[in-house]
Amino acid sequence: MTSLLRLATAGSVDDGKSTLVGRLLFDSKSILADQFDAVERVSRDRGLETTDLALVTDGLRSEREQGITIDVAYRYFATEKRTFILADCPGHVQYTRNTVTGSSTADVLVVLVDIRNGIQEQTRRHLAVASLLRVPHVFVTVNKIDLLDYDEAAYNNVAREIHAVADTLGLEDVTTIPVSALRGDNVVERSSATPWYDGPSLLELLETLPLDRAESRLPLHFPVQLVIRPQSSAAPEFHDYRAYAGRISAGSARVGDDVVVLPSGHRSTIVGIDLAGEGLTEAHIAQSVSIRLADDIDISRGDVIVAAESALALRDSATATLAWLADTPLATGSRVLVKHGTKSVLAIVTEVIGKLDLDTGDLVPANTLTLNDIGEVALRFAEPLPLEDYSSSRANGAFLLIDGQEGTTLAAGMAHAVPVTV
What we know:
The chain is α+β, with helices and mostly antiparallel strands. Helix content is 18%, strand content 35%.
């Protein structure tokens, strides 16, 4: 069975990101014949002499008409060595929120840079998002190298600039690759046009990237999404059935494991794990299952089942980094909903501490956060949450801020270690 890699792509407008993704899918033979026929037809309708591979991922009519990506396009493809879920994110500044969404679960972020322009403000923002979201690996493809006659010196200059910015932002695993998305150089196959580059192609990197997900080594963390109690009309053997459905966000669950239910603190033991009507002896991170316990405990949506040895604490306040995604500014005193796992609680912003300077990587004082700002705030919750430090757990340290009246998403948050516990 091949392993699954989640990747996201990002880049400034006109850096050739959609073309790169289209080339990756086309050259790896991951496009169906009818899909390619449709792309060829649209290319002819637009008066193009060659097939525009950017149309492979620009699936919305509004995207095709404008020639830009405006939404996250998810694609599944596979090679003999690995399967992939690809999130193609937009490049425009106003769609940075989509990049946050696409990168939040990625194992690797592929960032495009036009070799003629070098690092742009949006490139810095995308690299900052990768740093804040703790994306494990970042590949920067220096694109359109064919337009500079495959100039090694030009590539090296941009590569040095990229690594300098990455160091400023604290990114540890950054790899640069010279590519031409239009011609396919170093995308799937290594190119003879860059004899001075002895590294792998983009696809080779993606196929051989080692996956070591830290969350799998953590204690069990299972947010309850639904309590399953069959109605009286169910078959007799299910009359006493009671299970808790959800998705394992960290660790593993095994029959016989001792667990604690938060926030009540009640203890019990796992006596059954069900998946699609079949019993399992164990289940692992990212699996959606139903768990049965030995004791009849009052558990509801939003509660969390954790390993008995877990040191997870309930917190009624936190400091956090926010990627602000709303048009309305955030200020001290703002009241919001915090959605963590399957639980939502009211919260108040007790302080806007500062925002990130994308040029220096420093946190500078600020009174408000506006659209696409990345900043740090202090929050106080109306009810305690089992919130972890994001540096320890991407899944359990992440949360959303939501407008309590309109229900719209305001920000993606990453919690820091906080001293207050209850």
